[in-house]
Write a structure and sequence with these properties.
4-stranded antiparallel β-sheet; 5 helices; alpha+beta; two-stranded antiparallel ribbon
Length: 179
Amino acid sequence: TAVYLDYLNEIDLLRTTVRQEAFGILVDERQTHKLLDDLRAKVKLAEAESLKIVGRPLNLNSSKQVPEYLTEELGLSLAKTTSTGSASAGKESLMLIRDSHPIIDVILKYRTFSRGITSIEKYLEFMNPKTRRIHANIKTNEAVTGRQSCSEPNLQNVTKEGSERSAFVVPARRCFRAD
């Protein structure tokens, strides 16, 4: 009977999931565009800060230029390496040396806000223009952990303000409104 009860729970979960997908999540377009404008301004500021600190253009997203600059020109050591053995300037590695030089925060800001722009633009892309809602694809059995997952767009990675997982946070939850 335990298997049968699990089966009934799964059926209820599927019904709820179908309703969630159909109802969707309301997007606050005005707030979303305001946030995008703010993030674009922050990206430009980070680019200007970088130019001022470095003295020349540096591709802040480059997995080659950034570690070269940090290790060869600034003499910093990066704790993490890539699969090929070269120095890694990923977020974890940069967080370990964050207090070593002002350019580290500039790189983290630039990368965080650039990714934020991409994510938020996806919300607008997937939003139904008539209903102003995102009808994401909720999958009940795809995650290995047994949890639900979400795609088109992924709404499970929307950070909240005050998150301690990152030095800089994109307040993407401001894009959504409850009815």
